[in-house]
Fold this protein.
Amino acid sequence: MAWTGPFTKSGKSALVAEGPWSYAMDAIAAHIICERDLLESAVPEGVKPTEDVYMYFADIVSSSPTFPELNYEAPGLVQYRELAFFVKVEFRGENYAYCPFMYVDNDVSLVRGYVAGFPKKMAVIDITRRHPMLKVEKVGGVAMRAGYRIAKLIVKPERDAESNPLDNFGKWLLYRISKPMGVAEFVEIVPEVQYGRIEKGEAKIEIGGGINDELEVFSVKEVVSGVHFSALLRIGSIRKL
Amino acid sequence: MAWTGPFTKSGKSALVAEGPWSYAMDAIAAHIICERDLLESAVPEGVKPTEDVYMYFADIVSSSPTFPELNYEAPGLVQYRELAFFVKVEFRGENYAYCPFMYVDNDVSLVRGYVAGFPKKMAVIDITRRHPMLKVEKVGGVAMRAGYRIAKLIVKPERDAESNPLDNFGKWLLYRISKPMGVAEFVEIVPEVQYGRIEKGEAKIEIGGGINDELEVFSVKEVVSGVHFSALLRIGSIRKL
Amino acid sequence: MAWTGPFTKSGKSALVAEGPWSYAMDAIAAHIICERDLLESAVPEGVKPTEDVYMYFADIVSSSPTFPELNYEAPGLVQYRELAFFVKVEFRGENYAYCPFMYVDNDVSLVRGYVAGFPKKMAVIDITRRHPMLKVEKVGGVAMRAGYRIAKLIVKPERDAESNPLDNFGKWLLYRISKPMGVAEFVEIVPEVQYGRIEKGEAKIEIGGGINDELEVFSVKEVVSGVHFSALLRIGSIRKL
Amino acid sequence: MAWTGPFTKSGKSALVAEGPWSYAMDAIAAHIICERDLLESAVPEGVKPTEDVYMYFADIVSSSPTFPELNYEAPGLVQYRELAFFVKVEFRGENYAYCPFMYVDNDVSLVRGYVAGFPKKMAVIDITRRHPMLKVEKVGGVAMRAGYRIAKLIVKPERDAESNPLDNFGKWLLYRISKPMGVAEFVEIVPEVQYGRIEKGEAKIEIGGGINDELEVFSVKEVVSGVHFSALLRIGSIRKL
């Protein structure tokens, strides 16, 4: 019943309960074009970045059939907010969506991601929640950490859309590092996404960073589109490359 | 443009921007019967408690037409979670819903409430968020503060309902205290509530408390009903009694 | 036993217990010279700023003899971090230290300050803690709020000093605003400070701000000195002007 | 320069910078005797608990010579609070201090511990900070998570002491689990501790727990002593058993 410690014989005290986990989310995203050369410093040897970058802020409810009680007995453990960046790259002759930076505000998500290879850190993340009884013209996300801005994204949903730009980047590629455990390896994830509504529109982006977050690798040349969508994500497969 | 400091000539730096504020919410609530005698110690002189108590956990998006940009430029400032208790009381010959304890997780809400007379404190509050793509059988709220549990409420929505039990308690009565400002007075609020869906069902409640939160005044004798609802709240009128 | 709500007959549930409060602190501070004209927009009518500004980050333990148990039963309620700005001003023919912006990370402090007239807001604040068994060459403070940086200050303590520059600014002047309570008035505070060690040295400052924090009023022309000190503060007197 | 992701070529964006890390701390601790049988459910096969348990709340400043700037540029990343439990056990013929539960309030610490095998989770932790200018008779620590109390410990320092009871438990034993990485193994750590002042006195303990924290395994039969100490900890050696 447990993917991680703390170990107990029942398995009920584990930080990350066993999956498979589902992730229901409302997300604010953007497809942007960045300086290719700067992206080089954020990818490992053998990974060739293109200039296509996708970023999203997501408000997420996760759930596992092995411990569904958490969703109402301790909802703070399985709900969280996330900011992620994906770079379209070439690796061993294939296109991938490589994730160099990911921020969450919840420890279950942090470690659940860490063991898969997601480069998660904690940040304070706020995301506009749309309520059916309150009109908002725009939606936004902001994240901060260590005293500085991480990123800000504002999207004005203007029209329904058929697809999410991230889906053209390829399967997901992660670089899992845990030096004290002797681990430094590539991981491939095939996501399974089922979309609710997808809307597109104008986006406004500010990317920050600081001493422990070299986000200056994202120098935005062009904003292709802003996206607002809801989706249900499952991990189709995960394997070490 | 400002209800409070910090003062600047533009008014844009105020902790609480001028209203009128609207509050769109999803709430998990319960109507409970408590020991009447214990409630006495949580109300001021002149206020006579009945044994009817209403508690709710609410996930709230607030918005003011004087500063709507906050909802997407800095969404964390106007979104928050709240736990409140209301006791049906008699005061000067009328029935009121008197609020002895209220918890939030946001400073704008804390001070916006404080100046009206709401007895707000900060707590860490988590509430089940229902996502259309993820089924949950039950919804729950938990709150903690100062190292101890404040309260926990789990509701199983079973049937649509017409009304919310709080609406039978009367107008809202607050006791506004700010000793260093020489203030100790009663305030009457007439809320204007527009409901979305209201559901009722079984509720399970645990009330905690500790050295700075005398929640032992709520000794639950009976749970009348659990409620799950969405609503849009505005303050119809507010006056000093 | 209570300065504020929540009201209970015992007084033990109040957010702010009755004082007099003492504040033991370790602080990182700087005396800076700013553009005088810009400061105009952060002070009320009748207050004339000079170009002298003092800012500090402080790690504070507060305590009241009316409720000393809080310091070990619920230490998180009485310990907090604070960032404040003071501008040397002229008001009705006297010099004052006027406080236009103040940030804390604790609700007791927020409301205890609010009722006196301190323009407090919540921020995430981190401050170097010096431990006797770990050498550090520099000490720093950072604060962030609403997705953006508020301020950062790094001081390299180089020599012992006799005095703290703030003490030459005058008594403290606050502008207490609570529009829904009909309050907009000046407050004068005479602080009583007892110093531990005071050190001075180089300081490095970055001031941020954003949509709800007009900190661009602080345009730093010169850093006079950085300060690192410990002190015990009490409020000598407080009166409405 | 990095023990974990996020990977960048400079190594500066890693959540956990390379060590060796030092930990300067002020701690409130207790040596307690618990029901041996209940402890069985919190240890893996092959580990035999005794009835001796040690718990501590610690306020910690960590530092690594590979990235000392963090201590003043971003102090929140390297300072944190921790609550840990150690059980004296027998394992393969030797005595060990086995750690079944550990809580922190910082992500760097969480993952730095996780990769070593410490069973860390996030909690909200508050600990009395003693300030030289403010007398306190007792010191306390409280921790809460997921809506419930984790633990509370109050110690009244009464006399100087020579040693810390934990040091008689043996080397540290951890059970490192990361099922998605195929890891489930024992780890032995030899701590190197240099003490500042050690004081002993009466202790008062409350242990909580809830759906994700089976702390009912700690049924306190006797409090042997409370401890208040400062120390500098380094990891002497770490090896997989």
